[in-house]
């Protein structure tokens, strides 16, 4: 393909991706190839020249902009490391990830809410399935740190580890929702973690 034609193709793809991001954030799973074509003032058949499906478009958007995070650092699994510090570090990492990826998370969450669906659930999008896998792994790591902190007497045993985990997730999603309106300074994340966990510390 000549360079000029390839450049026009990439420009058109970029316009389609930008338009689709807005639609996904606004309408979630109701977005179709037809609605994208309508927003772009294209014939639906023309859109299929650039992308074959919604999952392909979502994967392209996320591949371009999604900054992955992992909680697989050996420090989080080392039983000799202070579990409350591990829990704080994991919460901080998750919040920093959400802080840095708000628009991308809006697209992901518009496709897979609620995230508490069964562990066998999968989407057609490879990138969203990757996020779901990471989310589930993070939950397991968080609950493990909670249990170990309870065992050491650093967190109250008045509530189950499962309940504490779910209040942590609720808190994180609450902050995510608030940050969509207005973001605080990124440096405030550590104090947000400390303040929340003080509810469960002795």
pLDDT averaged over residues: 88
The rounded Rg comes to 20 Å
Helical region count? Answer: 9
C-alpha end-to-end distance? 67 Å
Unreliable stretches, pLDDT < 50, 5 or more residues? Answer: none
Oligomer: single chain
Largest sheet composition: none
Structural class: mainly alpha
Overview of the structural elements:
By secondary structure, the protein is mostly helical. The protein folds into two domains: 3-52, Arc Repressor Mutant, subunit A (Orthogonal Bundle); 74-197, no CATH class. 67% of the residues lie in helices and 0% in strands. The chain has nine helices and no strands. Helix 5 runs antiparallel to helix 7 (126-151) and helix 5 packs parallel to helix 8. The radius of gyration is 20 Å and the shape is elongated. The relative contact order is 0.12. The model has no long low-confidence stretch (mean pLDDT 88).
List the helices and strands and how they pair.
Layout: H1 3-27, H2 33-39, H3 44-50, H4 54-65, H5 83-100, H6 102-112, H7 126-151, H8 161-181, H9 189-197
Helix pairs in contact: 1-6, 2-3, 5-7, 5-8, 5-9, 7-8
Quick overview:
This protein has helices spanning 3-27, 33-39, 44-50, 54-65, 83-100, 102-112, 126-151, 161-181, 189-197. With 202 residues, it is mainly alpha-helical.
